[in-house]
Design brief:
Largest sheet: 6 strands, antiparallel
Number of helices: 11
Strand content: 25-35%
Radius of gyration: 27 Å
Order of helices and strands: EHHHHHHEEEEHEEHHHEEEEEEEEEEHEE
Shape: globular
Structural class: alpha+beta
Helix content: 10-25%
Length: 395
């Protein structure tokens, strides 16, 4: 039990497990006949009612925590239950309800029909996590909603009138994130296939003993009032997505003119990330490409993109969603502190042309998008570098 969890009160808890199973039947009663007695009066015992779990909308929380609501509203957590990629995955998953475990965790507590459930990983989810238990392939975790107690890493908070508070060192540590960011798919045959491996990569990397947790990058701290009208504090965490993918990548490049055209070569380096990039769902891609652009802004030619990603495949070696995968087909992701060289080629350039080197992030590979029957949004631009003449000469 985590420090700060109440032991005296009757609480209704929900244990979120990585799979589904049958409920445990109640223990048998002892049917022993008692000697007949003459009743004098009937006594009806008063049994305290179990507290009913209640989940409030993030908008309700935002009445006091406005900055948190604004940050969370633009985050991936807020989109967890409604992103097009997720909805397409859920539609094809063999057990769609199992997807709710992390994308709509309140479904198991208050039901799918409740509007708060559709808010995905909302305030009531993260701040009701009372315990996380790590397993070899996934984590299980406990939501405690019945006491209206909100857990967090601030341990000297004065309880407001609206809810209780609970001191939780766990909320400042990576195992909290492992509740959903630690997952392996176990096929019917063969070894487990990594799906969300960021926690495992952090756990076995050099940053864990150094004390850098997920929250250090993805929930950076600032000086702010936790609630409207409250005192200004140091070390108050942001509630958006924090560090972006492009923040961890450094590009160094040059263009040399050779007999076959322009050779663009250099290095892409991962700096500060304790996990591979791109992170998250297999099939997500980082693209490195180059355009030759005229003096008037017209794209004259483009080099083939270099793709950095992890691809899961089925028995035929075809890329497939993780719940149908049998193995990792390829993994070209960039590793922590890695400095990887690259080379791109463009035709010879007119004197007024320049090279536009682009680093992009794509939510899903085209092959996986085709398998899921969804239209991919345009890739997100992470970085752009401009290389201009005069060009050096290739040896």
């Amino acid at each position: 039990m985590r420090p700060g969890a109440p032991l005296r009160r009757v609480a209704l808890c929900l244990v979120i497990l990585p799979g589904c199973g049958e409920s445990t039947p109640p223990p048998p009663t002892n049917n022993i006949e008692a000697a007949p007695v003459t009743p004098v009066m009937t006594v009806v015992p008063v049994v305290p009612a179990m507290p009913v779990p209640e989940a409030r909308s993030a908008r309700r929380c935002g009445e006091c925590h406005e900055s948190y609501l604004t940050e969370w509203s633009g985050s991936a957590h807020a989109e967890a239950d409604r992103s097009p990629v997720y909805r397409a995955m859920r539609a094809q998953a063999p057990d769609a309800a199992a997807c709710d475990r992390c994308h709509a965790p309140l479904a198991a507590v208050i039901g799918r029909a409740d509007p708060v459930t559709a808010e995905g990983v909302t305030c009531e989810v993260c701040h009701a996590i009372a315990e996380v238990t790590l397993g070899p392939h996934a984590a299980s975790w406990t939501l405690q909603l019945a006491e209206n107690r909100k857990y967090g890493p601030i341990c000297d908070a004065v309880e407001p009138y609206f809810h209780r508070t609970g001191c939780s060192p766990l909320h400042a540590e990576s195992p909290l994130c492992a509740a959903c960011h630690h997952l392996e798919h176990v096929p019917a045959e063969g070894p487990a296939v990594p799906v969300f491996s960021e926690f495992a990569e952090w756990q076995h990397g050099e940053t864990m003993p150094a004390g850098l947790h997920c929250q250090g990058c993805h929930m950076p701290q600032r000086r702010l009032a936790v609630a409207s009208g409250g005192p200004i504090r140091d070390a108050v965490s942001e509630h958006g997505d924090g560090a972006a993918t492009g923040d961890a990548l450094r590009l160094t490049a040059r263009a040399l003119l050779g007999p076959e055209g322009l050779q663009i070569s250099g290095h892409i380096e991962v700096s500060g990330a304790p996990h591979a990039v791109p992170v998250g769902l297999p099939g997500r891609e980082i693209l490195l490409g180059a355009n030759l652009v005229s003096g008037t802004g017209e794209i004259l030619s483009s080099a083939a993109d270099i793709v950095y990603s992890r691809m899961l495949v089925d028995a035929h070696g075809e890329e497939t969603p993780f719940f149908r995968a049998l193995r990792v087909g390829s993994d070209t992701r960039l590793r922590p502190d890695e400095k990887r060289s690259f080379e791109l080629w463009l035709p010879a350039a007119p004197p007024d042309a320049h090279v536009e080197l682009r680093l992009l992030e794509r939510a899903l590979s085209p092959e996986l998008a085709l398998a899921l029957a969804i239209e991919l949004p345009a890739p997100r631009v992470l970085q752009v570098q401009r290389l201009t003449a005069p060009w050096g000469r290739a040896p």
